Amino acid sequence: MTDPDGINNKPDNTPGWRFSRAFWTANVVELLERAAWYGVFVAITLYLSRILAFDDIQAAVISGVFSAGLYLLPTFTGAYADRIGFKRALLLAFGLLAAGYGCMWVLPAALEGGGLATYGREVAFTGLRESGLKWLFIPVMLLVMVGGSFIKSVITGTVAKETTEANRARGYSIFYGMVNVGAFSGKTVVKPLRLSMGNRGLVVLNLFASGLTALAFILVGLFYRSKRERDEEGRSLAEIWRALVAVCKRGRLLVLIVIITGFWMVQHQLYATMPKYVLRMAGEGASPSWYANVNPAVVVVFVGLVTQWMRKRTALTSMTVGMFIMPLSAFCMASGNLIGGSPILGMHPVALMMVVGIAFQGLAECFISPRYLEYFSLQAPRGQEGLYLGFSHLHSFLSSVVGFSLSGVLLDRYCPAPDKFPDAAAWEAAKQHAHYIWFVFVGIALVAAVALIVFGRVTRRMDERAAVARD
């Protein structure tokens, strides 16, 4: 039943599409937050280099830390959200996000001492290249990082608390749909802004994100009411820290995390390397933000089919299939520079093969991600599955730091910014080996895939020995 304020006093135990006001509010603001985040993040390395004049390596390291924090912090901020209540946590989160994105909008103009009209259409600021003032971006980044970390834990927590066993599957299907709609729409808006405004669009994009998160703040304040939002028995930060230490001490889990990091290092190049690589190799008319949407589209279409197909196979078998798809993905990305410059199906070869490679990435994710969570949960002590799963994404923390940093080094070495060269001929000569970047990731993916096979065989023998010892 629902009271006049829209608060469920009793869970509805009938399967259906009727959910509390808190549930629907949480899902709507999740869509807004994902649109804001993916719109900004798919272009973050371009913003850092073209607007704030960070070089490729600096931009990559900053972006990697940015991404890594969002995978490490949610378990800790989630514990704090349990203490203060979900509504307060969401208001805090969206307040930080709106402020952070807003600062990303005004920071370049403030540092240059001019308004947005001073931005060139295709020429980035150069006055900040030698200035330490551009590092003011770091505290701004922390606002977005901390705000975003609350969202990851609180929204999923709300879905869990506002559903019952009867309608939980539908509740999470709605949540998953909102995430993907938000991700798709956020990335889609980037190209129109760049086409109409040039590099200035990379700045105005942050105003778009700030507006979406400010709207989410208002919606939470007006409509989010739940009597089950506070968890007085939530785990303390000390307990969570001890659990993190325990996960790191479990050799099997730690090795698996490191192996799967190889997959995510390649996957993260969707944001670390791909945008700059495509624009430099295929031209400013390319659409890296739209190409990035191929990944979630493939996942949404195929994840159910792949899961059904592999249902009788072990989690490690499914993961291994996906791991061997990743080298093929990276090779496709490399091959665009080997084909030549003539358009294929109306697309530059680099752009076309990038899309093909991204599609294979999405397919690999269908084999890996769901079964990885399954395997990880089975390794947790009974009763601590949820706590352990909170650290299941440590691979993304590691791959963000290492993968983004490696991307910056490789871009600087094999596909540097064209403005580093005296003329177009020098740039044309330099980019002949740009595809070497993707060969490095072919190697990383192959090593990770082989390592997973070895891991599977070793752990199977260990389990067999343990079973014999018990008997």
Explained architecture:
With 471 residues, this protein is mostly helical. The chain folds into 2 domains: 13-229, Up-down Bundle (Growth Hormone, Chain: A); 235-471, Up-down Bundle (Growth Hormone, Chain: A). It has 21 helices and no strands. The protein has helices at 21-41, 44-51, 56-72, 74-84, 86-112, 137-161, 168-188, 190-197, 200-223, 237-249, 251-267, 269-272, 274-282, 288-292, 294-309, 315-339, 349-378, 385-389, 394-414, 424-430, 436-470. Helix 11 (251-267) packs antiparallel against helix 21 (436-470). The longest helix has 35 residues, at 436-470. The protein is globular, with a radius of gyration of 23 Å. The protein starts with 20 loop residues before the first helix and ends with a helix. Mean pLDDT is 84; it is low at 1-12 and 114-124.
What would you call the shape? globular
The CATH architecture category of the largest domain equals Up-down Bundle
- Which structural class do the helices and strands define? mainly alpha
Strand portion: under 5%
CATH class of the largest domain, please?
A: Mainly Alpha
Query: CATH topology of the largest domain, anyone?
Result: Growth Hormone, Chain: A
The CATH superfamily of the largest domain bears the name MFS general substrate transporter like domains
Tally of helical segments: 21
The radius of gyration is 23 Å
